[in-house]
Design a protein that fits this description.
There is one protein chain. The chain has helices at residues 30-43, 46-54, 62-73. By secondary structure, the chain is mostly helical. The longest helix is centred in the middle third of the chain and has 14 residues, at 30-43.
Length: 76
């Protein structure tokens, strides 16, 4: 990723915040698996990604979102 901190583009804001959720796809405790899948399932859903645009954040590219959603669905 390349960031142009000198941009003069109207409306551009040169601060980038990247958020990561790192979890295991297998071996999660049964007591927290449903909550974990629910949270990650929503945030990786089309609806969850659309909410990001209302708060000025950029959603995941569809190719990445789909992969994340597939992995979340198979978590155990």
């Amino acid at each position: 990723m390349t960031i142009d901190y000198t941009t003069k583009t109207p409306g551009a804001y040169p601060i980038v915040l990247v958020t990561y959720e790192i979890v295991c796809d297998k071996g999660n405790p049964a007591s927290s698996l449903a909550l974990l899948k629910s949270f990650l399932g929503y945030t990786s859903s089309t609806a969850g990604q659309q909410v990001l645009t209302t708060v000025g954040s950029a959603p995941l590219p569809e190719s990445v979102r789909g992969k994340v959603a597939t992995i979340v669905g198979s978590m155990s």
